[in-house]
From TrEMBL:
This is Methyl-accepting chemotaxis protein. One of its GO terms (molecular function) is transmembrane signaling receptor activity. Residues 278-287, 294-306 have a biased composition (Polar residues). InterPro entries: Chemotax_Me-accpt_rcpt, HAMP_dom, HlyB_4HB_MCP, MCPsignal_dom. The lineage of its organism: Bacteria, Pseudomonadati, Pseudomonadota, Gammaproteobacteria, Aeromonadales.
Amino acid sequence: MSIRQKLGLGIVLPLLVLAALLMGTVQLANRMMDGMNAMYQGEVVQLKELKQIADLYAVNIIDAANKTNAGGMTAAEARQGMLAARRQTQEIWRSYRTYPMSEQERRLADTVEHLFPPADAEVDRLLPLLETSAPGTLSSQILALYGKVDPLSTAVSELVDYQLSSAEHSMERLNAMKGSMLGTLIGVGVVASVLLVLVGLWVGSSVSVPLGHMGRVLEAMRRELDLSQDVPVLRSDEMGRLGMALNGVTQQFRAMIGEISGMAEQLSLAAGQLSTIATESRSQMTEQQHETEQSAAAMNQMSATVSEVAHSSSNAADAATRADQSARRGQSVVRDAMRGSEALAEQIRGTAGMITQLSQDSRDISSVMDVIRGIAEQTNLLALNAAIEAARAGDQGRGFAVVADEVRTLAQRTQNSTSEIAQTIDKLQQGASQAAESMQQGLEQVDRTTDIVRQCGTSLEESVGTVDLISEMNTHIATAAEEQSKVAEEISRNVSNISHIAGTTSASADTLMGRSRELENLAAGLKAKVGQFRC
């Protein structure tokens, strides 16, 4: 369980206990109220009704009779009051008998109920006498009424006593119930208080114990630089995760210190190697300074040789320029020949195109002649059909037959002329085809001649390009030789600078040796500081 959940339990549990106590108190109060209501409905109301019955007989009936006998009340008033009292008594008694009763209370009620008829009978005998008797003459009848009413009052009093005893028992039950509920509430309160104390101790220990472990580990880190201790993790709550995080930090510190120690060792070794390298560099710089002096002398000799090469390259460039001029003149002649050949080829192509167009036009004429031939054949057929129809018509179609015969004759002549024209066009097409073939052969010969001339031109162009390249290369060689001469001079100066730098580098190597020794001392101090940590 997490610390948050434990703290929440410490808050929720008292609230639950308080709610339970409140519910118990409310339940006790409800039960007390139910008991009091039951006592009121079962005893107090019944006592009230019994008291009303006793008062109605003692006051309303007997008192009315006494007042009438004494002359203080008229007979009519007494009769009305006594009848109303008896009627009210009967209603109250019927209401009383509807309540649930114990066996003893039912026996007492039955006794009272058996005493009502004699009392009512005595009242009935007294009522007529009230109107006929003079005041002061009813004492014996009133005494007889007392003889019937007193047993009824005594029985009602026994019922009242029973109700009082029942009410006393009800109060005793309520008091016992109150004591029991109070004892239960006190017990629940004591158990809840003990439970709250235990939960508080449990939550406090779940926080204080891990904090104590972490405090001891951190104090060891602070005083003794001891990183070898880990916090014991006994729970998976926030304190457990905090302990695991602290253990992870110490593990990372141990790993980092181990790496730093290894780096310090490597730094010490590197400083020693750097010192050795500085010593070797100083020796090599001295040797290099001697070699650069020798290189400077060699560069002076090379500069003189480069000057001679530049002069020879300039002469070769002049010769290449003259060869280039001759090649360019030959190239101009070849270009003129190529242009003439190409013009002749274009003329032959134009003539071949016209012959081809002539052959195409001849084929078009043949197509037209085929159409004319078809029309003549169709016309001949139509004329033949017209002659047949004219023959069928007899004398009426004779003139039409003559015309049809002339049309057929004309169509036959058209077919014959068309055949002659077709033969002439076939000859013309054959001649055009032969001319086209001859022109094609001439064109191919011109193309071959043009290709040969073009090849000659290409060769001359390549020769001109080669001469140009030679001339350009000679120029470049001369330029390069001049630049090389300048570079040689620059190299000579740089070699002198290198010699000077080598001297400076030698002095820097001495300084580097001193810094390397200081670095070795720093590495040793770092190892000593890291060695103070206990991992």
